[in-house]
């Protein structure tokens, strides 16, 4: 029985890779820039629309690449303007993408994997485990789709957070290709300091990322001030213990001169007590420029955690600030539309299984 090999996505290539592709296919070098322009400036959805390319080149592209299919399965809009999408991929797997409205512009939260194997005990993204990594083009297509939607109101994507479903540093190469296209002046041209990558603490790739020497922001999900508690909440800590993570963070700060944001989801009676704040402050004292983003945990039906009270959140923040640790409380968005990452997908998976 004959099988056809799956074609790569047209968004899978960086400009440098396009330049190599046109060269190998006997085309003039400038064609790479034209293709890139059609994809990211004009944002076409077919090769036929690339009208300044010769027909023969368009036929080569059609034979070699496919466009990413992001079929909108569900769309939820919050009262605060947050829009959450559930997209179905070519293989029927589903991913989430979120557009968040801020006073400073529109931010897109992208997904990097179908599911997640990290296993954080408070997170809906891990329900069902990891299915597969996304291709670079499937990550890029989420931002292109968001920008195309914003085009209707003459708005643009001004920032990106890689905090959707999955662990970005377990799909490292695809994420780096994604970032290359996002920041390229001929791509979507988004400022590096307007992009944040969030990791649960994949230590070897924190070192790699430090050596990339970018201006892209790094956020690390920490959620506990010690090994014992962090291993209970985040099994990844058993692979990459707390001390190793902090050493990698010190290397990153020394190498880049940039601060790290530590994300700390507050869970009532679990990690939100005064002693936790005191211990966290001692850990972070050795890390210059560190910043803690306190996150009131979202309720997930399949998990048992409850939200920390407002008074306790502020008390936790005050303790950190007493020790000169910069701490902010994340502004909630989309709380009326299954805000926790992975919840929409989890509902879809449950309905599909019936």
From TrEMBL:
GO molecular function: 4 iron, 4 sulfur cluster binding; metal ion binding; rRNA (adenine(2503)-C2-)-methyltransferase activity; rRNA binding; tRNA (adenine(37)-C2)-methyltransferase activity; tRNA binding
Catalytic site positions: 96 (proton acceptor), 341 (s-methylcysteine intermediate)
Protein EC: 2.1.1.192
First-listed, main subcellular location of the protein, grouped into a coarse class: cytoplasm
Full protein name: Probable dual-specificity RNA methyltransferase RlmN
One Gene Ontology cellular component annotation held by this UniProt entry: cytoplasm
InterPro entries: Aldolase_TIM, Methyltransferase_A, RlmN_N, RNA_MTrfase_RlmN, rRNA_lsu_MTrfase_RlmN/Cfr, rSAM, rSAM_sf
GO BP, sorted A to Z: rRNA base methylation; tRNA methylation
Ligand binding ([4Fe-4S] cluster): 116, 120, 123
Cofactor: [4Fe-4S] cluster
Function: Specifically methylates position 2 of adenine 2503 in 23S rRNA and position 2 of adenine 37 in tRNAs.
Protein species of origin: Paenibacillus thalictri
Top-rank taxon, per record: Bacteria
Positions contributing to S-adenosyl-L-methionine binding: 166-167, 198, 221-223, 298
HAMAP family, per database record: RNA_methyltr_RlmN
Alphabetical list of Pfam families matching this protein: Radical_SAM, RlmN_N
Domain called Radical SAM core: residue spans: 102-335
